[in-house]
Design a protein that fits this description.
By secondary structure, the chain is mainly β. The chain has 3 helices and 25 strands.
């Protein structure tokens, strides 16, 4: 009887793996190369997004550009990290001020939608599907700890004003657990969607999920080869078949540096991770294509702790880096108020936005112009 159960389980896993693998779609990226006009102020614009006196734990901020040049930001809040009764919340920025916070969904609502008990929520990541449609991916924890997460998805068809019921992405036949979100999704040339995620149970390593146009997982590729590697991969396409992924290093790794893995076949296979010369305390990296030859990235430029968030420009091979400037610093009078989890997007021509958190305290926003970036680049070059 036991052998029969094992054989049936093995056969089921084989069928599931076969179902997840596409047969004929081309593995090429939909590459968008922006041309940056040098425009905007030379001063940074920054605001606190969360309401004054926010008492909940807030973390994992992200954002998506709105059609009018504004933003919609997302984050999660709970009595403490990983607690019951977590919420995914949002606010809108019209270029001058942030709107009041609105609830997107809750642990209880997701539990009802999926018909399973969900303990907590984390790391909402938006993806603009069309002019009106936004998908929001997020991590859902079933039990204690993030290692028991699966990935959820809610969709809005009115630009984030209202949201539909939660759906579950099926990422693995092993109880569909231990996959989490953090980084920006992207498109393949045939309309499939790439979702960078990571596994956390036992060994932490980056994973690329491939979704069809309806949002169903059809393939899963492990990134960076075997072993305990790192997590929260940030993938940036550099050509039709090439991309690099910045990988958050494990806190146990020495020296503490940002890691990179590369693909030359559209994401089907990835090289072993390599260290860069950029220090990092074990915090996530956010990056986007800046222009034809460069990548803009936001990261914690410190090997010990999340003291600052720095912007830098990298070449398309991820081999040379030039720091531009610091956009956020830890409070000098409160050493526990680190600046964490940067999330970078371009919201308009020559206009960039970084969301980040001071956990337990606030969600913050910084707007950066291309003029500020080019000025910082000139200053950096003059100091060489």
């Amino acid at each position: 009887m036991g052998w029969a159960i094992l054989l049936c389980s093995a056969a089921l896993m084989v069928l599931l793996f076969q179902k997840m693998r596409p047969s004929s779609e081309p593995w090429t990226f939909a590459v968008s190369v922006p041309e940056q006009p040098v425009r905007g102020p030379l001063d940074l614009s920054s605001e606190i997004v969360t309401p004054k006196g926010e008492s909940e734990f807030v973390h994992g901020a992200s954002a998506v550009a709105m059609p009018n040049g504004g933003l919609q930001a997302f984050w999660y809040r709970a009595p403490y990290e990983g607690a019951n009764d977590a919420e995914l919340v949002s606010a809108r920025f019209d270029g001058k001020e942030w709107s009041p916070t609105r609830v997107v969904t809750t642990s209880a609502r997701v539990s009802h939608d999926l018909a399973i008990r969900i303990k907590s929520l984390a790391n909402p990541v938006p993806f603009r599907r069309s002019d009106k449609e936004i998908w929001l991916f997020f991590a859902t924890s079933r039990l204690s700890g993030w290692a028991t997460c699966e990935i959820g998805l809610v969709r809005s068809f009115d630009n984030g004003a209202t949201w539909g019921p939660a759906e579950s992405l099926y990422a693995t036949p092993f109880f569909n657990m231990s996959h989490l979100t953090k980084s920006t999704p992207f498109l393949f040339s045939d309309g499939r969607i790439g979702l960078p995620v990571y596994q956390e149970m036992n060994r932490k390593f980056p994973v690329l999920l491939v979704l069809d146009a309806d949002g169903h997982v059809i393939d899963r590729r492990r990134m960076g080869k075997a072993g305990k590697i790192g997590y929260q991969p940030m993938i940036v396409a550099t050509g039709q078949s090439t991309a690099i992924a910045f990988v958050r290093p494990l806190k146990s790794r020495r020296p503490r540096e940002i890691l990179i893995t590369r693909t030359t076949d559209g994401g089907q296979t990835w090289t072993p991770v390599e260290p860069t010369n950029l220090p990092n305390p074990g915090g996530p990296i956010s990056a986007i294509r800046y222009d034809a030859t460069r990548i803009l990235m936001a990261f914690n430029d410190d090997a010990k702790m999340e003291r600052n968030i720095t912007l830098a420009l990298a070449d398309l091979d991820g081999k040379t880096f030039r720091r531009i400037g610091v956009i956020a610093r830890m409070d000098t009078d409160r050493q526990d108020h680190i600046v964490a989890y940067p999330f970078l997007i371009q919201s308009g021509p020559g206009q960039f936005d970084v969301m980040y958190s001071r956990p337990i305290k606030t969600i913050n926003h910084v707007r950066v112009s291309s003029a500020w970036i080019e000025h910082g680049l000139q200053q950096s070059t003059a100091q060489q």
